[in-house]
Amino acid sequence: MRRPCQPSRTQALGLPDLADHKRASEICLETETKTVRILVVDDHDIIRRGLRELLTMRQGWEVCGEAKTGREAVALAEQLQPEIVVMDVSMPELNGLEAARRIHEQFPRMGILILTLHFSDQLVRDIVAAGARAYILKSDTARDLVSAVEAVANRQTFFTPRAAEVLLDSFSRKGSELDAKVLARSRLTPREREIVHLLAEGKTSKEVGLALGISMKTAETHRANIMRKLEVHSVSEVVRYAVKNHIVEI
């Protein structure tokens, strides 16, 4: 009996066949003839493999490293110095937004492209505030990934029409009309946002301390300061804040 054909990794992701994608990529504008080194960040192995296949089809593009957590992404960005980071927004230990913020602060010329499963107006604003220059949905990866990386490699931005509309609307607002979520998020330091992420994952103060290399007492002090700043009284309220403000996704 003939064995059924096994789907490719890109087909397993719900993406078109690579041959179709290759034909589409051939019509893209050519970048300068130099190697573009790309760091791929996602906590799912199959997603990383699919992204690698799509990216390395383009001549001159090289996936120089892979990371599965935000913390690994920050460390590899410093170690490998890629031109571009392609990163999922929802990951363990440190989410893509916080990782992007840290990478951008340290390497402002490093291009960051954010991938996400869902679209929201607030998420678009947060992604831009974190320093990313491109944002695409995972469902649109086959169609948009090459064009988005092409744009970032040329120091340009890449956003869908809906995302661009959100950004234009945000830029047109007066300072007094800024979204309350953005103001609330800005109350927390980078370390506090990291702790919020760990608490939202269900980690205890002891586990937070071990993950960050600090004492349990210091972790508890941070947790108390976070609750005071956010005007909440329980970890469950901190988790709701984290979900609402896209520090974690569910």
Describe the model.
- By secondary structure, this protein is of the alpha/beta class.
- The chain has helices spanning 9-12, 18-25, 45-56, 70-80, 96-106, 121-129, 141-153, 161-171, 180-186, 190-200, 205-212, 216-230, 235-244; strands spanning 36-41, 61-67, 84-88, 111-116, 134-137.
- The protein has 13 helices and five strands.
- The chain has a five-stranded parallel sheet with strand order 2-1-3-4-5, sandwiched between helices.
- The model is unreliable at 23-32 and 174-178 (pLDDT under 50).
**CATH H-level superfamily of the largest domain:** Response regulator
Domain module tally: 2
Mean of all residue-level pLDDT scores = 79
CATH topology call of the largest domain: Rossmann fold
Quote the beta fraction: 5-15%
Instruction: Identify the CATH architecture of the largest domain.
Output: 3-Layer(aba) Sandwich
Secondary-structure content class:
alpha/beta
Number of strands: 5
What is the topology, as strand order, of the major beta sheet? 2-1-3-4-5
From the N-terminal CA to the C-terminal CA, the straight-line distance is 43 Å
By CATH reckoning, the class of the largest domain would read: Alpha Beta
Q: How do the helices and strands follow one another from N- to C-terminus?
A: HHEHEHEHEHEHHHHHHH
Per the principal axes of the C-alpha atoms, what is the gross shape?
globular
Biggest beta-sheet profile? 5 strands, parallel
Q: What proportion of the residues is helical, as a percent range?
A: 40-55%
Low-confidence stretches: 23-32, 174-178
